[in-house]
Structures are given as C-alpha cells and as structure tokens.
Amino acid sequence: MSTDLLRPPRTTRRPPAVSRPTALVDVGALRANTCAVVRATRTPVMAVVKADGYGHGALALARAALAGGASALGVTSIAEAVLLRHAGIDVPVLSWLNSPAADFGDALRARVDVAVPSPGHLRAVVDAARRTGTTATIHLHADIGMSRDGAEEETWGRLCAEAGAAEAAGDVVVRGLMGHLGCADRAGRPTATADLDRFERATRVARSAGLSPTVRHLGGTDAALHDPRARLDMCRVGAGLVGIAPVGVPVGPAATLRPALTLLAPVVGVREAAAGRRVGYGDAHVLARATRLALLPVGYADGIPRITTGRASVLLHGHRCPVVGLVSMDQVVVDVGALPVAAGDVAVVLGPGDDGEPTARDWAGWARTIEHEIVTGIGPRVERHHVEEDH
Ligand SMILES: *Cc1c(COP(=O)(O)O)cnc(C)c1O
User: Name one GO cellular component term (predicted).
Assistant: First the structure.
C-alpha cells in the first residue's frame, strides 16, 4: 500500500460521474493556451491539429484555436485536411507529409495548401492542378537539418527552379517556404543556429529562382516559445495548444499553459485480497499484505503504457492509489487500501493536476517518453467529451 493512502486526501472534489472510460477535453483551456501562444510569439499562429488534434479531437482543437487567435491550420495528411473543410472551416489549411501518390486532387478541390518536398511531389501536384482546373497553393519544404521531411540541399535548387516554371505556367502559386527545427528546446543552441542558417540559404536560392513566398515558417511549440529567431512569418504550434509545454516552461494549474485533457475511468469492481495473492498476469506483483483492489477498464489498448508497471498511480477518493501488477490490454488493477472505494466510483487517470491527479507529464516520466506520446496514444475506445470551463 502506498504512503499516500495514509495521508489526508489531496482533494474532496469528486470527478464527474462516468460509466465508461472518458476523456474530458477542456475547450476553454485549448482556447486560453492558443491566446497565450499568440501573445507570447506576437506572430501569426498555424494551429497544428494532426493526430486527431493530439488526441483531443481535431475539430474541437481547430475551432478552439481559431477562437483563441490562430489564423491557419496544419495537418499531415490530405484526409485530415479535407475533414476540416467538410466541417465548414474556411481558414487556410496546410497539409504536409504526403506520398507523391497521394490524391492531391482532393486537396485542391478542398482548397487545401500542400507542402512540396521534392520534384516528384511537385509533378504530382502540377498534374492534379491541371486535372482539376485549379491553381495549387504550395509551400516548398526544405530539410534544414533533421534528415527527415523536406528537400535536401542538393535538390533544393532544382525544386525551386521547377516550382518557378510551374508558377509561370499558372499551375501553382508558391505561397510559403517551410523547414523544421529539430533542436529548438533552448534558445541559441548551435544546432538551431546552423539550421536557421540553412533556412536562410534556402530562402536566398528560392528568391534567386524568381519565387516570392510570403509566409516562411520553421518550427513547432519549442521553437516558437524559446527562439524568437525561429518565428519568422508564422509559428506552427500543436503541443502548446493542448497544454504540453517545452522543457523549462512550467505547465499545470497555475502556469500559462494548461493541460486540456482529463482521462476518467469508472471502477468496475472492488475485491478484498489476502497477503500473498498474485495480481494480474504472471507473478509480477504479489501482495505483501491484505488490501482491497479496484479494477479499472483501461489498459494498453487505451493508451496506458505497459512499461509504467510498478510506477504508475491514479487518483481515487482524493488519494493516489498505485497501479499494481502488469497493465493488461483492457484493464488495470489499483491498490486502494482501506479507502471506501466502491464499484461505480470514478478514478482520475490523468488530468491537469489541479486535484493531485497524475498529469500527462507524470505518465510520460513513468513511461520514459514524452507527453505527446501519452495524449496521442489514448485509444479510440475512450469516449471524448468536450466541455467548456472558465479560465
Ligand atoms: C507536429 C508538427 C508541428 C507542431 O509541433 P509541436 O511541437 O507539437 O508544436 C510543427 N511542424 C511540423 C512539421 C510538425 O510535424
């Protein structure tokens, strides 16, 4: 039994009643976080709503971010972009990370801007523009150091020249240049400076090819909040909007950025268990003393990382109760000691931390990962409810 169970409760507030695993998404927090990022960067913000809005719901995040001052939206796939259009969202939407075989026609018909990282992609976009009788709005994507997406320095000149020809032919308009900073977590890091230099060189090459992009953009939350040099004409921000702060920036109830997601799970059953009993698969956990065990219907299929076994806890009756035994696919067992927990009570699995519940940052620490992986990992069986709270 954990020592927390012997202390006074961290809160006497009861979580909302739910009958199945539920993620409450605090729309007010999404909006307030966007406002905070816009204020801090004094730069137009593209809200990145990929991966279903970092697990918070793409549409909900998009709408809240636009209400909070974002002026454009970013996603990886064309399908995610088209979904935003079908929901009636009318601001500029940029999609990156598409295969050259992607249906760029779908993007153009939905007035979705596309990132172009290679001459092959450019040819596919030009074909789609001709087929659909439209002009494609594109952002040329340069690799400035991550060796991931974007054109390498050796092909950048050719990409710019071919984009210039396509622009002259009326098939595309080169609206933007993009790169991505992979080491932006501290201002003035030498790697960030080298990457910024590479982006400046790429810009000069583009201009000398006759291109005149009006929106240059470089990085995500870390770059936007830590390094003013990386802001340029627009910041592409996702994590910060859902309350994931860069290293060194506080996050939580009293901080500027507030985690927006609370994961709740109802107690399915409670049992007494004698000392020496095994809990869960294998013999990973044997009870040292008699206690009471509560069963929660969330497991690794719902985004509870199995690697957290032996470290994780959840909030029940205002106390942190340890998760005991291996995390199963659909369930976890929690040691509730002498707490009067009953079936139907609700556990707070993670949240902003207001009442002492674990945060996504805590889960990330237990899982040796980052908060992004925790919130985007919450599975499709978990129902999302969007709620409006004042901040
Ligand atoms: C995801 C992503 C972003 C947003 O990054 P955050 O750190 O979540 O703000 C920006 N740019 C690109 C290319 C991305 O893939």
Answer: cytosol
Average pLDDT over residues 327-333: 98
Classify 51 in phi/psi space as left (phi over 0), alpha (psi -120 to 50) or beta. Answer: left
Atom of ligand 1 nearest to the CA of 48: 4
Is the pLDDT score of 148 beyond 90?
yes
Burial class (CB in 10 A: 0-12, 13-18, 19+), 65: buried
Cα of 75 from ligand 1 centre, angstroms: 9
The values of phi and psi at residue 363, to 5°, are: -60, -40
Instruction: List all residues whose CB is within 6 A of at least one atom of ligand 1.
Output: 48, 50, 96, 180, 220-222, 236-240
- What average pLDDT does the segment 42-64 reach? 98
Quick count: other Cβ atoms within 10 Å of Cβ 386?
A: 18
- Integer Cα distance of 46 and 221 in angstroms: 11
| Dihedrals phi, psi of 241, to nearest 5 degrees | -70, -30
Give tens-digit pLDDT for 65-80. 999 999 999 999 999 9
Residue 50: active-site member: yes
Catalytic entry in 276, 281, 307, 389: 281
Ligand 1, from 141, 217, 236: best to mutate by most atoms within 8 Å of Cβ? 236
319, 5 contact by CB (below 8 A)? yes
Pocket test of ligand 1: the residue of 34, 41, 45, 48 to mutate, having most ligand atoms within 8 Å of its CB, is 48
Domains of the chain: 72-233 (3.20.20.10), 261-387 (2.40.37.10)
Residue 185 has pLDDT above 70, yes or no: no
Binding residues: 148, 329
Supply the pTM of this predicted model. 0.96
Choose among 199, 204, 259: nearest CA to 223.
199
Q: Cα(56)–Cα(122) distance, rounded to whole angstroms?
A: 33
* Predicted confidence band of residue 291 (pLDDT cuts 50, 70, 90): very high
d(C-alpha 303, C-alpha 177), whole Å:
35
